[in-house]
Design brief:
The protein is an alpha+beta fold. The chain is built from eleven helices and twelve strands. It has four domains: 67 residues, Arc Repressor Mutant, subunit A, CATH 1.10.10.10; 34 residues, no CATH class; 90 residues, SH3 type barrels, CATH 2.30.30; 77 residues, 2-Layer Sandwich (Alpha-Beta Plaits). The chain is 41% helix and 26% strand. A five-stranded antiparallel beta sheet has the order 7-6-5-4-8. Helix 2 packs across helix 3, helix 5 runs antiparallel to helix 6 and helix 10 crosses helix 11.
Length: 298
């Protein structure tokens, strides 16, 4: 209890500059004598704290205390503030308050270097709210009821125990233990149509590896694009997966999940992609294109 109060006294003095013993006693709900004992304890620990008598006196820290006594370098302070700025950018109120406190403590200005908005174009903010609710459930260890749009089961309602939020291939995922399947599952946040954080809790899981779906050994897919599609190819693939040919064509080799999503993804390139391998993927895309034509022809 005393250690917590000692830290709070330091922060209060860093923020206010100086304070009287009665002021600190009232602030921390202890006696004036206890405050003076705390001052002695801080001084004995090497904190440059002083008490001056008189109307302009009071208890204060040496003005250079933060710079001289901190164990963090200037670069480390900036890194901490930058990390907290990223939390604040996702509408984390606690992160914002912590950012203000540490900015004052470090005597540094926090640069507003990042803005993160999880909502899609035209969205009214549910994506941001969804991220915050799931993050809170992960940290607090609370069960979550989700209404999910799966590529296999259409729509389903599940109770999950959220373990980790992960960002992969320009999309956010939730790794959670599904109470119905009694196994870990990965859910794409965009497909969570509704959710409710439940009161029931669970013991946190020790997740040190990425979600299993991310580690799965996918087959190698080889694609060829004309040079005119460079803007789209570099949007979708890492440059290490792309080889520029002598004629300007772009050859892409990448491991990707072979499912309904991949077929739709390749169809989105229209006639500007040649599927070189595997052969069955080329057949699947051609078959799907034919079905689309048959359904939409006039």
């Amino acid at each position: 209890m005393q250690e917590s109060r000692l830290f709070k006294i330091i922060y209060y003095l860093l923020d206010k500059g100086r304070a009287t013993a009665p002021e600190l006693a009232e602030k921390f709900e202890v006696s004036v004598r206890t405050i003076y004992r705390d001052i002695d304890a801080l001084s004995g620990a090497g904190v440059p704290i002083y008490a001056e008598a008189g109307r302009a006196g009071g208890i204060h820290l040496m003005s250079s205390f933060v710079l001289d006594k901190t164990i963090l370098s200037e670069e480390e302070k900036q890194e901490i503030l930058a990390a907290l700025q990223s939390l604040n950018s996702v509408q984390n109120q606690i992160g914002g308050k912590t950012l203000q406190k540490l900015s004052a403590m470090f005597q540094l200005h926090s640069h507003n270097w990042l803005t993160v908005d999880f909502s899609r174009w035209g969205n009214q903010g549910f994506d941001n709210e969804k991220f915050e609710l799931l993050k809170s459930a992960v940290i607090r260890g609370k069960n979550v009821k989700i209404y999910y749009a799966s590529s296999y089961e259409a729509f389903s309602e599940r109770i999950v125990q959220p373990c980790k939020l992960a960002y992969k291939a320009r999309a956010w995922y939730l790794l959670a233990f599904c109470t119905e399947k009694q196994d870990f599952r990965t859910f794409k946040l965009n497909r969570i149509l509704d959710l409710e954080v439940l009161q029931e809790g669970f013991l946190p899981y020790n997740i040190t590896k990425p979600p299993q779906d991310f580690e799965e050994e996918y087959n190698l897919i080889t694609l060829r694009f004309p040079k005119e599609m460079a803007y789209r190819v570099y949007d979708e693939f890492d440059k290490t997966q792309i080889k520029r040919q002598e004629n300007g064509d772009l050859l892409v080799s990448a491991k990707m999940p072979e499912d309904a999503w991949l077929t739709g993804f390749l169809l989105s390139f229209g006639t500007q992609v040649d599927i070189l391998s595997p052969p069955y993927l080329k057949e699947a895309v051609a078959k799907q294109a034919k079905l689309i034509y048959e359904k939409n022809k006039t």
